[in-house]
Design a protein that fits this description.
alpha+beta, 3-stranded antiparallel β-sheet, 16% helix
């Protein structure tokens, strides 16, 4: 999943930093920020979980959501991932 809640605000993984408490937007359970050299930054549920908020999202799907989210503000269009 690309977004999580932190201190009452929705934030995206690309602009987050490790060491903070991140919560799932749907159920409020703790999630982990994952950053690496291969996949884009994203949040993952700590196992075990039954949350379906972002289940089944492929790498291509997550990347496809990021592109418009970065360009729409340039056109003064607000969006939320």
């Amino acid at each position: 999943m690309l977004t999580a809640n932190c201190n009452g605000r929705r934030i995206d993984a690309a602009s987050s930093q490790k060491g903070l408490l991140f919560l799932c937007p749907k159920f409020g359970r703790e999630v982990t920020l994952k950053e690496g050299q291969i996949k884009i930054p994203h949040f993952a549920h700590k196992p075990p979980t039954d949350c379906t908020w972002a289940s089944g999202e492929t790498q291509a799907h997550m990347e496809a959501k990021i592109c418009p989210a970065r360009w729409l503000p340039c056109a003064w269009i607000w969006c939320r991932l």
